[in-house]
Structures
1.
Amino acid sequence: MLRPIATIARYTLVEALRTRLPMLVIAAVLALAAASTFGHQLAIAESARIQIGIYAASARLASVFIAGLYVLASMAREFDDRGLDIVLALDLTRAHYLLGKLAGFLALGVLVAAVATVPLVLFASPAAALQWGLSLALELAVMMAFALFCIVSLSQVPMAAAAMLGFYLLGRALTAMRLMGANPIAGGDSSAHQVMQWMIEGLALLLPAFDGWTRTEWLADAPAGWMEIATLAGHGALYVVLIAAASLFDFYRRNF
Amino acid sequence: MSERGMAAVPRTVVGLLAAAFAVQIAWQASRPAPTARAEALPLPYSANAMRALSGSDTIVAAQLSALYLQAFDNQPGVSIPFAELNYARVERWLAMMLDLDPRAQYPLMMATQLYAQAPIAEKQRAMLDFVHRRFLDDPGRRWRWLAHAAIVARHRLGDLTLALRYADDIARHASGAPGWARQMRIFILEDMGEREAARILLGGLLAGGEVTDPQEIRFLSERLEALRAAENSSPPSRN
C-alpha cells in the first residue's frame, strides 16, 4: 500500500522541483524580505517589529497562494494530458494515486514553508521562527489538500481557485465574524441576524480558524507555547485526513 | 462530467470520511468560544511611508486611514469608548492624514466631532489644541473646525479664555470666514464680562464696512446698543 504512494509522492515532488516553482518561491521570499527591509528603513519607531510584521504577513499569504495555485495547475495539467489515465491503467488504485499526489504536495509544502522561514531567522528569535515555520507548513498542508480536493471535485481551475481563495479568506476571517455576530452593535434580536449567526457558527464547526495559525505575534511579541503548536499539528493532521477522505470520495465517483 | 454511483466508493473511504467529519465537528465544538479582546491603537506609518505604500495615491491612503481610525473603536466583538483610546496616537493618525491630503476636512471633523466629545477635559483639550495648530497651517479652509473648537471650549470646557483665543485667531487669520465666525470673539468677550472690549470690537466691525448684509447690520447694531446700555447701567469702576 505504502510503496506505490511513496513512489507517486516522490515523482510529484521531483516534478515540482524541476519546474520554475522553486525559483518563484525564492524570488517571492527575496522580494518580500526586501520590501520588509524597506519598511524597516521607513519606520520611525518599532522598526524591527514593523519589518517582522510586513514580512510575516506577506510571506504567509504568498506561500499559501503560490502553493495552492501550483497544486491546481499541476493536477489540471495531469487531467488534460491524460497522464492520469496511464497511471490508472497500471496496477494502482485511485487511492494510491491521490494519496501519493497528496503526500508529494505535503512534502512540497514543507519545503516552501522552510524557504519562507529562512529570513525570519535573521529578524526574530530562532524558536519563534521555528514555530512560525512549523505552523506555516501545517497551514500549507491544509490549503494544498483543499486545493487538491477543489480540482478533483470541480475540475476547472478558475472555479477551483475561487473556492480555494474563498476557503482561505473565510478561515482567516471566521473568528472575527463570530465575535461580531455574537456581539452586534444593533439589530441582534432580528431573525435575519439569528440565521446569520447560526450559519457562521455552523461554518466554525467545519472550517479551521486560520487566524490562530502562523501568527505574527509569535515573532513580534512572544513565542507560542509548544503545546499550542502541538495542538495545531493535531488539528492540521485531522483536517488533512478529512479533506483527503472527501477528495477520495469524489475521486472514486468520477468517470474518466 | 459523468459520475459513478456511490457503490464505486470503497467503504473504507466512506468510513474514513464520516469518522474524520465527526472528529472535526467534535474538535471544533469542544473549543472555547472566541472572546473579544480590545487591541491598542498602533502607531501609524509616517506620511512618506504611506505615500510609498499607496503608490503615491495619497488621497486614497488618507481616506482609508480615516476609515480605519474611525472604525477602530468598534473592533470585532468589542466597543472601545473614545475615552480609552490613546489620544497621542489618535493625534498622530490625524496628523498623518492631513499631511497626506491637506485639503481633506475629514481628520479635523473627526477631531472636533468625535474625539473632542470624550468626557475627559484633558483629551478634549488635546484635540482642540490639535485643531488649532492645524488651523494655522491653512486658515482659509479650516476655520470652521476652529470655530467648532471655540464652541466646545466655551460650552463643554467652560474655558472662555481658550474660546476667545480661538475666536481671535479666526478673526485674525481667516479673512474668508463668514461674519458669524469672525464675530464670535465679540460674544465671548461679552460672556466674559468684557463689555467694553466687546463694544469696541463691534463698533469697529460696523464702522469698517466689513458687514454688508442689512439684517446683520441691524442685529449687530442692536447688540452694540445693548452693550452700551449695559455698560452705562453697570456700577462705576473703583479705578
2.
Amino acid sequence: MMMRTIVLLLLCVCGNDTLADAVFDSCVLCHGTGVKGNAAIHAPKLAGLQGWYVLRQLEAFRSGVRGTHAQDVSGSEMRTIALSLRDDELKKPAALIAGLPATSNDATIDGDTARGERLYVSCAACHGSRGEGNEALGAPALARGSDWYLVRQLLNFRNGLRGTAQSDAFGVSMRAAALTIPDDQGVRDVVAYINTLR
Amino acid sequence: MSISRRRFLHLVGVAGGSTAAYQAALGLGLIPIAGAAQPPDIAPLARGVRKSVLILGAGLASLVAAYELKRRGYRVRVLEAANRIGGRILTIRGGDVIDEVGNPQVCRFDREPHLYFNAGASRIPGDHTATLDYCRKLDVELEPFVNLNRDAWVQDDALFGGQRIRNREYMAETRGFISELAAKSIRPEDIDEPFTAADLKAIVEYLRQFGRLDPQLKASRSKRTTSTSFANPSALQDLFHSKILSGMAYGESEDQSAVMLTPVGGMDRIPAAFAERLGDVIQLNARVDAIRLTDSGVDVDCVTRRGRETLSADFCLNSIPMQLLAGIEHNFPADYTRGLAAVPRGKYFKLAFQAKERFWEREKIYGGISWTMQDISQIWYPSHGIHKRKGVILGAYTFDGTSGDMFARLSPQERLALAIRQGEKLHPGYGGYVEHGVSVCWHRMNHMLGCAAAWSGPLRTQWFKTLREPAGHHYLLGDQISELPSWQEGAVRSAFFALADIDRRVRESVVA
C-alpha cells in the first residue's frame, strides 16, 4: 500500500494534469478516444452508459464478483484497474462517462433481427423496450453499446464467467435471464435486434 | 529395425535440431531479411521548399525517421505519450517507475552501472545490419551478449524426474543417442534408391563424428556428466516425450545464433544516442487523440499538459501500436481500419531480480540461458558485470498469450514468488539470493498494451501490404509493420520503407 502511494505520488509529480483527468486518461488508454470502445483489445464502448451502472461495475470488479473467473481475461484486466483506484477515485470516471453522449456505431454482429425481436421481449421488462435501461431495476442501457461486447457478456453469463457470485444479485438474475435464450445463435439474434434500437 | 532413406534423413533432422532445419529452410529458398538494409538516400529539400513530418511515438522506428529527415532539412516533430522515449526499448534501473496500468512498480535495484534489466529489446543478431550500422554511426558501444551457453541448465518435469542437467550434457547425449540409433539401424537393403557401399561408409562415419560414437558405434558417456540419468534404460523415452528440445535448439536458430550483441550499459543507449542528436523535436507526455487524413496531409489532435491542440503536417509517420491506434479517432479507409484490428497483439512477459550474489558463476555459468518447461520458461544470466558481487538475473521470459495472461493476473509480488518457486528447480536455494524483483507484462504497459504484433502467415497475406502502404499521407511505422516483428531491425527497416516512399513523393511533387 505504501509503495502504491509512493508510485501514485510519483506519477502525479511526473505528469498528467489533475488526478481526475489522470484517472479518465487511464480509461481512454483502453476504451479509446471519447471512451467509444476499442474492439482490438476487447475494451467496450463506455460513452452512453449511466454513471450509476459504471460505478456498480467498478465496485463489482473491486469486490471480485466480476473479473475473477479464470477464463475471463478482459475482466481480470479491468479488475486490476478497479483495484488500483482509491474509493474517492471511483466516482470521478463514472461521473465523467455519464456526461458523454451515446453515439451510434457500426454493427459488427449478424443475426436474425425478427427472431431477436421476439427474444428481446423478456429483456425489455428490465432494460426497456428501446434498450434505454432502468435505474430503478438496476438494468443498464443496451442501445448503441458495443454489440460484440453484448454478445461476449451474454455468453459470459451463460457460461458462468459472470453472475455466479451469490452476493451479486443483479449478476445472478442476469445469468438466469441469459440462460433462457435457447442457443448461442439466439444471443447473436437478440444483439442484432438491439442494434436496431435507438 | 528397418529404415527408409526418408526416415533416416528425418532422424538426422531430429538430431541436427534447428541447424538442420535452417539448412532445409535455405534449401527451400527462404530469403534473407526483406526490406532495404540501408537508409534511403533522401534528397535534401531545395531552398524554399518546406516539408513537415509529424512522427507519432518515440520508439526506434520514429527516432530513425526523425534523424534521417531532419538531416535533409525536413521539419520534424515527434509526439510521445509516455514520459520517456524508446517504446519497447526499456532499460530498467534503480528508481525507475514501471508504468503498468493498475500495477505500477518502482525498481529498487542498487544504483550501480551494471545493475539494470533490459525489459524489452535485449540482444542484436550479427546480421541485423541496419541496427548495427546506427550503433557504429552514433558511437553506441557494443559488447557480446551470451545467448547460448552449454553450461546452463535444462529442466523438465517430464525428463528424468525433473532433475536439472547441463545443456551440454543434454545435447551431447541426445546426439549420441540419435547417432547410435541411426548408425546401427542403417542397412543397404533398406535404402530405396541407388546407394553405394562408399555412401554407406561415409554416412556411418558422419554419424560417428556427429554423435561422438566409439568405434563400436556406441555413444560414449560425456566426461562432464553431472547426472546418471542418461544411463537409465528409460532415458530414450524420456528424451522423446520431453518437449524441451525446442529450447535447446533455440540458440541455433537464424536470429538467435551466437554471436549476439548488446549496448554496454543497457539497450536504451541506442534511443538515447538518437535523442542526443535530435534535440528538442521530441515532445513527451503528448497523447494523440485523433488523426485525420486531409487532401494535402494529416491533422493530429494532441493532448498535452497545456491542453488540446491540432497539429498539421505534410506527412505523418505513426508508430502507435496498432491495438491502441484502433481505439483512436481517425478517418482511415475502411480496409485499413479493419487491418489495424485484425492483427493480434503479442503478450510477452519478463521478470528480473537483483541477486545479492552471482551464485550462477559459482555453478560455472557465465551468461546465457537456462531452459525449463515450467511457466517461467527461461532464466538469463547477465553477460556483463562478471565476478562483481551482485547481478540482475532474468527470472522469467514467456512469449505465448496464455502465459502472458496468467502472469498479468498476478500482482508483481505474486509473480516474483512464482518465479522463485519455479527457479528453485534449477538453482536450489534460489530464493535466498533475491533482493528486489520487477516484472514487465508488455500487454499491460501504459501506452503499449501489447508486445510484438502476432502476425501469422494468413494475416500477413491478407493485411500486410494494405497496412504498410500509406493511407493518404499517413504511414504506419515500427516493428509491427515489418518482416521482423519484435526486433529492432524490423523497426529500423520499417522507417526505411516509409522514408523511401516519402522521398519519392517529394521528388515527384517538386519536379511537377
